[in-house]
Design goal:
Layout lengths: L1 H12 L3 E4 L5 E4 L7 H9 L1 H10 L3 E5 L2 E6 L2 H14 L8 E6 L5 E7 L5
Antiparallel strand pairs: 1-2, 1-4, 3-4, 3-5, 5-6
């Protein structure tokens, strides 16, 4: 697993940002050309081990109505993910959703309320 850990660190040094959701699905963003078919194959083949490594890193949690819906590995990425979650939240009639961003030490960093507006 050490080689895989080094592999992930090299990718992160190249600017690859990894995300995973509570269902264990791994996502990434990278500059064009960084994620070659060979790299993608290694990631797919070693998904379980990579997920474990990512979970060992400090994570920021994104919650909706007190339920974890996503995580990010650093503050910058967490703010991007938080914004996307807020933007994708569908208003529910008669209900205001609460989206929270929690730091690794469980401090609330951001909160957004998504109310339903009757038109």
């Amino acid at each position: 697993m050490t080689n895989l850990s080094n592999f992930l660190e090299e990718l992160q040094a190249k600017g690859v940002k990894f995300y995973y959701n509570v269902d264990g699905k791994i996502h990434w963003t990278a500059e064009k050309g960084v994620m070659t078919p060979e790299i993608q194959s290694i990631l797919t083949t070693n998904k379980r081990e990579i997920l474990q490594l990512l979970q060992l890193q400090r994570t920021y949690r994104i919650l909706m109505d007190a339920i974890e819906v996503d995580v990010a590995l650093n503050k910058s990425d967490s703010l991007e993910v938080f914004t996307k979650v807020v933007q994708k939240t569908t208003p529910t009639p008669g209900y205001t959703h609460c989206v929270e961003l929690m730091s690794p030490d469980k401090k609330r960093i951001r909160v957004a309320y998504v109310p339903y507006y009757h038109q």
